[in-house]
């Protein structure tokens, strides 16, 4: 009786352990069965799973392309063979693109850069000064084309004058164009000073030398820096809100001397004047050393003078 009771107590104490052992054993059995039921890849040849002809006809066209590249040992002459199954037009387009790519690889330049120099020069002649400067900063070949002397000569004719067609600038037409533009900008500043009636501006504009001269439209001549500035002081006090327009500006620039001729129309009713400004280059800038203004003769007056 005592033995049965002891076994009952022992069984009750081991009951949780026995239940856990049974659950673990059952889980192991399930795992083993699942492992053996998993499909395994086989290296043996099996039936083909490729789609049939009907499936191929109904399938959407694939974007993959069976392309191959062949070379004769030179990377520049590699040929691309493409069999994409496209239309003849698409195949021609692919062939043309391949031909252009091979040509560019062989020459190292684009189609634009392979133009005949005369055509390039003619095309660049339609550009203005800022556009031509920006183009020269793109690459070495475009810089060479944009710096061509004929291009800048054509631009000089278009922006300034044809009168100096036989001139051969020492540093080329590009440098001559830049120097001409600089002196014309300086000459524009001269008329801005007159329009503002700024005596301090006129003092800075003239070279402080004893050989400078100024001839006003009245015909009176002033020599020396002090006398020239005094003449402008009188002119600014007499003039009241002068309106004028400058036309036919022509410039000739040498190393350190330049002169500018122009026609100036005051109030558009009081006649026109021929003006000439002569500049000298000192200490990194241009200074005015001679100014001459005279009445522009009418056609009848000019004919009267010629006839004596």
From TrEMBL:
Transmembrane spans: 17-36
InterPro entries: F-box-like_dom_sf, F-box_dom, NTF2-like_dom_sf, SKIP8-like, SnoaL-like
Assigned keywords, A-Z: Membrane, Transmembrane, Transmembrane helix
PROSITE patterns: FBOX
Superkingdom of source: Eukaryota
Domain F-box as annotated: residue spans: 109-155
Gene3D superfamilies named in the record: 1.20.1280.50, 3.10.450.50
Record CDD domains: F-box_FBXL4 (cd22117)
Listed name of the protein: F-box domain-containing protein
Organism: Hibiscus trionum (Flower of an hour)
Lineage: Eukaryota, Viridiplantae, Streptophyta, Embryophyta, Tracheophyta
């Amino acid at each position: 009786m005592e033995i049965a009771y002891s076994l009952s107590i022992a069984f009750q104490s081991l009951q949780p352990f026995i239940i856990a052992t049974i659950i673990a054993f059952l889980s192991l059995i399930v795992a083993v069965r699942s492992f053996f039921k998993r499909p395994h890849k086989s290296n043996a040849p099996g039936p083909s799973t490729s789609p049939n002809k009907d499936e191929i006809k109904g399938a959407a066209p694939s974007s993959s392309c069976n392309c191959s590249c062949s070379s004769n040992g030179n990377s520049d002459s590699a040929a691309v063979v493409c069999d994409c199954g496209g239309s003849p037009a698409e195949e021609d387009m692919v062939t043309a693109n391949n031909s252009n790519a091979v040509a560019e690889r062989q020459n190292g330049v684009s189609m634009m850069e392979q133009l005949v120099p005369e055509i390039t020069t003619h095309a660049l002649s339609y550009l203005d000064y800022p556009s031509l400067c920006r183009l020269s900063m793109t690459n070495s070949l475009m810089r060479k084309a944009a710096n061509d002397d004929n291009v800048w000569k054509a631009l000089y004719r278009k922006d300034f004058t044809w009168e100096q067609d036989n001139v051969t600038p020492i540093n080329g037409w590009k440098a001559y164009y830049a120097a001409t533009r600089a002196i014309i900008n300086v000459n524009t500043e001269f008329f801005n000073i007159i329009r503002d009636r700024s005596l301090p501006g006129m003092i800075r504009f003239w070279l402080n030398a004893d050989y400078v001269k100024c001839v006003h439209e009245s015909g009176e001549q002033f020599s020396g820096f002090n006398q020239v500035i005094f003449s402008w002081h009188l002119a600014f006090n007499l003039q009241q809100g002068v309106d004028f327009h400058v036309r036919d500006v022509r410039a000739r620039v040498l190393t350190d001397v330049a002169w500018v001729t122009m026609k100036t129309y005051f109030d558009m009713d009081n006649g026109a004047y021929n003006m000439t400004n002569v500049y000298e280059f000192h200490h990194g800038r241009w200074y005015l050393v001679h100014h001459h203004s005279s009445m522009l003769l009418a056609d009848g007056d000019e004919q009267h003078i010629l006839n004596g």
